[in-house]
Structures are given as structure tokens and as C-alpha cells.
Amino acid sequence: MSVTAPLGFRAAGIVAGIKSGGARDLALVVNDGPSRAAAGVFTRNRFKAAPVLWSVQVLNGGRVRAVVLNSGGANACTGPLGFQDTHATAEKVAEVLDDSAAEIAVCSTGLIGERLPLDALLGGVGTAAAQLSRDGGLAAADAIRTTDTVSKISFRRGENGYMVGGMAKGAGMLAPALATMLCVLTTDADLTSEELDTVLRRATSVTFDRLDTDGCMSTNDTVLLLASGASGVRPDVAEFEKVVTAVCGDLSRQLLVDAEGASKAIAIEVVGAASEEDAVAVGRSVARSNLLKCAIHGEDPNWGRVVSAVGTTDAVFDAERVNVAVNGIWICRGGAAGDDRAKVDLRPRDVTITIDLSAGPHSATVHTTDLTAAYVHENSAYSS
Amino acid sequence: MSVTAPLGFRAAGIVAGIKSGGARDLALVVNDGPSRAAAGVFTRNRFKAAPVLWSVQVLNGGRVRAVVLNSGGANACTGPLGFQDTHATAEKVAEVLDDSAAEIAVCSTGLIGERLPLDALLGGVGTAAAQLSRDGGLAAADAIRTTDTVSKISFRRGENGYMVGGMAKGAGMLAPALATMLCVLTTDADLTSEELDTVLRRATSVTFDRLDTDGCMSTNDTVLLLASGASGVRPDVAEFEKVVTAVCGDLSRQLLVDAEGASKAIAIEVVGAASEEDAVAVGRSVARSNLLKCAIHGEDPNWGRVVSAVGTTDAVFDAERVNVAVNGIWICRGGAAGDDRAKVDLRPRDVTITIDLSAGPHSATVHTTDLTAAYVHENSAYSS
């Protein structure tokens, strides 16, 4: 169902010829209203792709009629001509929908530094517009894949019957192959763009922002939330946030499981922190330790590599009070060896590393993957 | 020649039985004076190994009679008992030298979280003391190896005939397998501990601190500089700094080339920066991009992965004025595609990535390695 699960949305995913090989490479998602309220969050990378620069401006207006997305090229680091290509794409969508380009968001994903084939792109927009339908969500989710092995879709029903749907590809803070995380969320609930903005920032901060498979940040990351209001339901905003967070969490999990070359999904659960910021900082530092990620790949419960990563942060803790468990066995207690590490079973795909800072009541979980030879192989051969 | 190249030093490297397999695992370096002035720099990791906690105290006094170093165990995260083991080791060295433990520095390297075999260690101190000699520098350098495939030694002669010698193992900011960087530098020049401290901080900040092979920071990193004054030469401090920096640079280069699993030595040269701090921050960010390191392994001049890493920093630059060259070919100009990337020859082991921020006159070079399946294999199997 994906982005077309909520009322008021049509979508399509088609072969525009941007990618070689004949796979789907262009998606169009249209909001038929009655509302067009929308919000977006974007990469913090200072090299922002042309579609990001464009869509930031569109979202400043708080209204989105449609989103056009392409795989097969990121349109990043392409200069003023690349920005013109994005602009022309938005104009083409506006033309086929008989609407304003100022309400058309654009997303691109693929290699950095190359211009998109504009004729294929603009032709594809026409084809996609002709195929828009209420059940086009799956084809749209398929069309935005790059190295993703499966489409990522999700939906949840909220109180009083409104729906939230979504599709995603690649990864954000995961950034496998800088393949970019793109995500479009839709709802038929009726909310203002300000409400959507608040909810989207909060939901992404505890889901997509806490995925970190290789520490790399894309030039193109974009998460959009579009509301049609077609259900007529005005939800409680707190309840709506829970539903959106659940959809984002579900999509995040799908991204994690499909991360390039990974054989383990690692949850780094930081508890006993003096603040949530401390917990996230510690989790992120551990998630970025190549040595730890190699150890988990080798099913070695190497807590020394955990505490070494903890020790590089500014978080509040006393080294002699830090405890670490791997899959529930507290193998480090008080900053030194604890229970028998032979008791740790690292054979399952899911691994939980719990770090107790003994410094306060706050917690956070950051998700990452192991580091494998397959990751190296996939990313050594990406563009050549 | 190593640490015994300068006058006034004796050393030994022996088999104490700390490592299984019968390799050398204990080194002793003794300063016979007349001066005992010394300085040290240590890991910034907040989980500091017992020998680091001990040696920091010793170096606060500015005088070192001897350094005892062991491989086969890091004595990190071993609690109060681990600290007692370090103390006992220093006392044993003091006893055999008929000197004060307060002037005995201790260094350890190996696995985190396990106690050292104290009997083997103390017995080894006696054996090493009996073998101390003016040509023991090579054996000492051999005894501190862990995953190092070769011993790292260096020496330089300064003006008016004084000498600076050194030995090193593993890696500091490189931290292959958290194998720790240990380095002992010696000189027969006559300088105060304050002068040595200033010189050592400056020399390490532009050499060891600019190696970054996997972003991991050890619990045990230690660099010591001991001056015997035995040459009678009081060097010009600026000239002395150049010689010490040359020795540190030489040892850094040896560490880089021997980093675990690496097939490329990558120099990330940042120019046109608004400050040296900016240049180092950009260099370090690029050095830590797993995606770029995979690309270089695959001999793919993927400048998109370079600018993506640059874009995550706070350095002063305008994205539209950044230029990137790989091995001298400016494949990114003005933040977009530049010269033909097919002209880049990435077959040599040495790779230079030049990043021109077009923001000022400052520069810095950070050194790293590629990311390979061999790195993953070596670090998946380290302790299991």
C-alpha cells in the first residue's frame, strides 16, 4: 500500500530510461487534497544536491501537490546546470498536473557529480502522470531503489480511522554507498504544515537519525510528510506523532536489515545516561567503531572495543562505574571484566549491546550493522 | 639503533612468557644520564589503562630513569588490581636498578580487560635488566610488537652531533585492532623537561596525531621522550624540534605502511583552509569515510565521497569553490565534475587526495589507509 494507503493520494513508478538495464527509475506521488499541508527534513551535509536545494524552498511554503523522485543519478555537485535540471523537472510535473511548480518537491538518488539525462527524465514524468493510480504505491517504492534489494513500505491506521503510509529507500545516516535515504510519508489526516513539521522532526530524530551503519552522510537525504486531509479526521497531534513514529521506525528497521553487506543488526542501547544527548553521543560513537563492528561480525563479544569507543565521548560518566552487556550478559562491570564472556551467544542476527553509564535516568538506542568483507567489496566496485 | 642510538641509553628486549608462543614480549629502556629530563603525551581516551594512569604521574615529575614496556596484554579496564600490577612492575624495575619507582614509566599493549601474568612480568624484568646493553635497541623494538609485521625504529643526528632515536609499535589514532601506539624517543642532547614537553607536543601534533586509519582511539597510547644529556650538546630548541619531528614523521610513516590489512597509503592534503584547525578537521573527516576508503581500495577516484565527507564539517568554505584532485588530476572543480577522471592513475600504493577549500592560506595533511576485506578479517578474529 505504501504512500497510497491513505485517501487522497495517487502514485506511479515507471521506467524512464535514466538507469541502464531497464529497471524502474522514476516515481511520482500526487496529493489530490483537499489539503496540501506538508513538511520536510533534509540532509545536514553542506554539499546539498540540487533537488534538496529546490525542495527546501518548496517546503518553506508548507504546501506540496506532488513529489517526483528518480533513481539512477543524485544530481549532486552538478552546479547551476544541475539546479536548472531539477527546476525543469518540477515545471514538467506542474505542467502535466496543471499546477504550480512551487508546490512540486523533487528527490534524486544515485551517483554524485553527473548530470541527469533530462530528456529521459521529462519524458518519464509524462509517462508516470498517465499511470497515476490509487494502487501505484508499490511501483513507486520499487522505482526509487538503488542498491536496495527490496522495496521498503509501511503503513499504520490511527485513531478514528485516518491512515499514515510511507516508502523509503537506501539509508540516511546509514548511507550505504552514499545511496541516500529518501522517504515519502503520506496521511489522510488533516493537520497544518506547522503541526506536520513538529511531528516529522520529532519522529525522525528518534528513528532515521538513530541509524548509523557507516557514519557517512549523504548529499541528498530527504524525508517528506504530506497530508491530504481526505479522511476528514483531525487527529490528536500527540497520537498522530506516535503513528508517524511507528511508520518511521518500521521503515528504519527495513533499511537497517537491508544495509549493504551487513550480516548483523546491532542495537546499541545506552542507559543510565545523564541526558538523552549523552546517550545518543555514546551510542553513535560505539556505532562508528570499525573495530567493534568487525568484532561483532566475528561473533567476538569484545567489550574492550565498546568501552574504548565510550571513552572518546564527552558524556558524563565515571570509567569505574560503566557496565556493558552483550545479548544480556554483563561481561563488563565497573569498567572491568564481569561475567564470563563465553556465556554470550552472538550467533543470532540481532545483537543488543547495552551500555550502563551509571550517571542518570536517560537512555537512547542507536542502530548499526557489522562491518563485513561484503561491505568492502560492494563499496569498492560501486561506480567503476 | 633505535632508542640506543643516542649516548646514555641501554636497552633490552626479552621473552618473559607473557605472550604465548615464545616471542619477545618485554622491553626495558634505561637512561644512564647524566640528565633524566623527560616528557610524555598520552591517549585522550577516558578509559585510560593502568600503565597510562601510572606513567602520567611519573611524567608530572619531569624525570624518567627507565621505561618498561610489555606486549601480550594492555592492562586496561582491569580495576585497582590492574593498577597494583603496574605499580609492582615499576617497583621491580626500581629494585633491579637500585632507583626510585617514581621515575619508572610503564607501557603495556595487547588485549583489554585481562590481568597480566604478574610472575612472568616481574621475572622478565630481572632477565631484561641482566641483558641491558648499548645495542639492545633492536631487541627492545621487537619486544613491543603485537600485530606489527616489522619493528619500527628511527634515528637522526642533530646539529653539533647530538642524536635522537626512537622505536614505536602499532598505531595511535590509527589504532589497528586497538593494538595501541607506543613510542619511546631518546636523545643525548641536554634539555629541560619543559623544553622536551613543548617539543614533544608540537612534534606529535603534526605526525602521530595526523595518522587516522580507522578512527579508533586506544586506551594505552603513549609517546615518551627521554633526554640523557650525555652528548653534552645543548641544542637550539627549534632545531631540536625539527629533528624530533623528523623522527616522529619517519615512525608515523612506518606505522601507516604496516597498518593492518591496508593496500594503499593515502595522504589527504587540505589546502586553502581558513585555519590549520579547519584543514585538520576536513582531513580527518575524509580519512574517516569508510565509503571513500573502500573506493580507493577499488581504485575508483570517487570525488563525490570526498566532498560528502568535507560537507559534514564546520570548516569555512563555499561548496561552489571547493576543488579536489586525486593523484594530481583535478577531477572536481568548483564543487562539480572537473577534469576527466579516467586520467587518474590509482594503481600505485601511495595515493594523494588534495582538497582545496579556497578559503585561506592554511594547510594540513592527514594520513590514512584504504579499507579492505583483509582489515575486516584481521579484526574479526583478533581475540577469538
Automatic annotation (TrEMBL), chains A, B:
<feature type="binding site">
    <location>
        <position position="169"/>
    </location>
    <ligand>
        <name>substrate</name>
    </ligand>
</feature>
<comment type="subunit">
    <text>Heterotetramer of two alpha and two beta chains.</text>
</comment>
<keyword id="KW-0055">Arginine biosynthesis</keyword>
<keyword id="KW-0028">Amino-acid biosynthesis</keyword>
<dbReference type="GO" id="GO:0005737">
    <property type="term" value="C:cytoplasm"/>
</dbReference>
<dbReference type="GO" id="GO:0004042">
    <property type="term" value="F:L-glutamate N-acetyltransferase activity"/>
</dbReference>
<keyword id="KW-0012">Acyltransferase</keyword>
<feature type="binding site">
    <location>
        <position position="379"/>
    </location>
    <ligand>
        <name>substrate</name>
    </ligand>
</feature>
<dbReference type="InterPro" id="IPR002813">
    <property type="entry name" value="Arg_biosynth_ArgJ"/>
</dbReference>
<keyword id="KW-0511">Multifunctional enzyme</keyword>
<feature type="site" description="Involved in the stabilization of negative charge on the oxyanion by the formation of the oxyanion hole">
    <location>
        <position position="110"/>
    </location>
</feature>
<feature type="binding site">
    <location>
        <position position="180"/>
    </location>
    <ligand>
        <name>substrate</name>
    </ligand>
</feature>
<dbReference type="GO" id="GO:0006526">
    <property type="term" value="P:L-arginine biosynthetic process"/>
</dbReference>
<feature type="site" description="Involved in the stabilization of negative charge on the oxyanion by the formation of the oxyanion hole">
    <location>
        <position position="109"/>
    </location>
</feature>
<dbReference type="InterPro" id="IPR042195">
    <property type="entry name" value="ArgJ_beta_C"/>
</dbReference>
<dbReference type="InterPro" id="IPR016117">
    <property type="entry name" value="ArgJ-like_dom_sf"/>
</dbReference>
<dbReference type="GO" id="GO:0006592">
    <property type="term" value="P:ornithine biosynthetic process"/>
</dbReference>
<protein>
    <recommendedName>
        <fullName>Arginine biosynthesis bifunctional protein ArgJ</fullName>
        <ecNumber>2.3.1.35</ecNumber>
        <ecNumber>2.3.1.1</ecNumber>
    </recommendedName>
</protein>
<feature type="binding site">
    <location>
        <position position="260"/>
    </location>
    <ligand>
        <name>substrate</name>
    </ligand>
</feature>
<feature type="binding site">
    <location>
        <position position="146"/>
    </location>
    <ligand>
        <name>substrate</name>
    </ligand>
</feature>
<comment type="function">
    <text>Catalyzes two activities which are involved in the cyclic version of arginine biosynthesis: the synthesis of N-acetylglutamate from glutamate and acetyl-CoA as the acetyl donor, and of ornithine by transacetylation between N(2)-acetylornithine and glutamate.</text>
</comment>
<feature type="site" description="Cleavage; by autolysis">
    <location>
        <begin position="179"/>
        <end position="180"/>
    </location>
</feature>
<comment type="similarity">
    <text>Belongs to the ArgJ family.</text>
</comment>
<comment type="pathway">
    <text>Amino-acid biosynthesis; L-arginine biosynthesis; L-ornithine and N-acetyl-L-glutamate from L-glutamate and N(2)-acetyl-L-ornithine (cyclic): step 1/1.</text>
</comment>
<feature type="active site" description="Nucleophile">
    <location>
        <position position="180"/>
    </location>
</feature>
<keyword id="KW-0963">Cytoplasm</keyword>
<dbReference type="Pfam" id="PF01960">
    <property type="entry name" value="ArgJ"/>
</dbReference>
<comment type="pathway">
    <text>Amino-acid biosynthesis; L-arginine biosynthesis; N(2)-acetyl-L-ornithine from L-glutamate: step 1/4.</text>
</comment>
<keyword id="KW-0808">Transferase</keyword>
<keyword id="KW-0068">Autocatalytic cleavage</keyword>
<dbReference type="GO" id="GO:0004358">
    <property type="term" value="F:L-glutamate N-acetyltransferase activity, acting on acetyl-L-ornithine as donor"/>
</dbReference>
<feature type="binding site">
    <location>
        <position position="384"/>
    </location>
    <ligand>
        <name>substrate</name>
    </ligand>
</feature>
